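DM from R.C. (forwarded with permission)

"hey, sorry to bug you on a friday — could you get me a structure for this? deadline for the figure draft is monday and I only need the backbone to look sensible"
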Amino acid sequence: MHLNINQAELISICPDPVIAINRRGIIAVFNRAAENLLGYDAQGVIGKMNIRQIYPSDIEARKIMRLMVDEEMYGAGKIEGYETYVLNSHRERVPIRLSAAALMKSGQYRGSVGFFHDMTRQKALESSLLKQSITDDLSGLFNQRHFYVQVASEMMRVKRYGGGLSLICIDLDGFKQVNDRLGHLEGDQIIRQIGRVLRDGLRESDQAFRYGGDEFMLMLPNTAIADACHLASRIRELFNLECSYSPDALNNEGVRVSMSLGVAACTEAEPVDYFIQKADMAMYSAKQAGGNCVRPFDTNKH
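My reply, with the result:
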């Protein structure tokens, strides 16, 4: 069967956006899919708009051109599967995967044609899967695996550039009684409550993690130990206000739940494990003092 379909018809029905430019970078082809992706009308851009206007910067536009002529990357005159983003008519970023080819005539560059595959759904899915992999389902905080990655990264920053870094280790006093006497569902409610308290009580630069069970870690970049102790005290007070089993609350269950908080500051030379251990030891000092209190790491005692 012979199909009588010309080039323009193929471009118009292509499900991916197709954009072609002349040698000056002016858009010469802008199909319906490109209109849908970027929100521009073809009549308003063909012959009028430079391709650089849809890229995030001139630097990115020049990079794409360099890649197209780099024989070692994709082969001279083409790009395959290069991920970047473009700007739509509202100047919003749209992630795309670009495959493009230079248009040559008598050895001279005459322009190029590119296929812009929309990556919005895939990037949203990747972001969702990443969030799930680093988040504790019950508390809504980051999980232990992500904690180790982040604390190591922050300690490296301190080693290179200086600046403070503090950890707050939190363990619940009396939490076992909740699970034993009131059931694990009630215990789960307290863990969720702690997640809300920590998210509400921290600064934007701070990060909260569920370290395991009823133990939590707060990482505070650019924070001296005195300021970290102050924040720890505020977190303890917020929890006592929110938790119906706190020492400040009245309940008929005979159960009391509070926080023991230990605070430690990072030094440039120490290993990650020792930094975490310092916060943990400070937390146990708070427990030994009766709980419901904050204790900084004391080098004279440990």
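R.C.: lifesaver. The radius of gyration is 29 Å.
me: no worries. The CA atoms of residues 95 and 122 lie 9 Å apart.
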